[in-house]
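Subject: sequence -> structure tokens, single chain

Hey, anyone have a minute? Need the predicted structure for the following. Not urgent.
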Amino acid sequence: MDLWVSAIGQGLLFGVLGIGLFLTFRILDFPDMTVEGTFPFGAAVAVSAITHGVSPLVATLFAMVAGMLAGLVTGLLATKGHMPLLIAGILTMTALYSINLRVMGKANLSLLNQPNLFSAKILADLPPYVGSVVVGLIVITVVIILLVLFLNTELGQGFIAAGDNRTMARSLGINPDNMQILGLVVGNGLIGLAGGLVAQNDGYADVSMGTGVIVIGLAAIIIGEVMFGNLTLSQRLIAVVLGSIVYRFVILIVLKLGFNADDLKLISAIVLAIAIIVPQIDERLRLRKILRNGVKTND
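Reply:
Had a minute. Here:
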């Protein structure tokens, strides 16, 4: 039972990552490779701050700000430097590897005997792993409420319009480049926040912990979309979180079947591939069925 509770907690924490990636991948319509540098950057900043005596809550906010700065760099490279979005993200991700080493002073940093959000007194008496569920629910609720409020503002609607059609947005007086920078800043801020939370939950930060996290985020988005279909924007944010939890369940089941934990990245890639392919196959089968029914009707 503890493993399932842990999977829910991990799913909620990585759901923050999924929501951050959703802003760039779905609304801005491009996969932001900065993610794989921003996630460990947030973790490194949070853990390093805590080991230097900073309050865990403030350290977590530092992680979010660090992510926002990383997103700002990618946005400026892409818009002001006129770089392809993918290359801008890769450059920032690569630079962050060295920055993370500088922040931590070494390849990994432990929180052993250090306070963190999950060791707070209010959570101490809860059953094992329930603390991560409680913290995850609180953070997810706040993030979704703030995002829904933001996306329903004039600025938020401009952000969505710029992602849908840059030409149309420009004709409406919206600067698509500014909206792109905004999306990268907010999205990577959430990813940095997720890194800080996951690091505190795991008890350490590692310079390589960002490897493959873009697959985890994409899996959460796509699984949520496959499971729940057409939804409003606010409902899609919730679907991303549920998709993240389902993804964690799938990984747990696979490991329980006896697969090696070293194959986790491979399994993650396979799960994502299946999540992408299955809806396409289903759509083709439905189309063929409609065509066949149409032929029969004409006969």
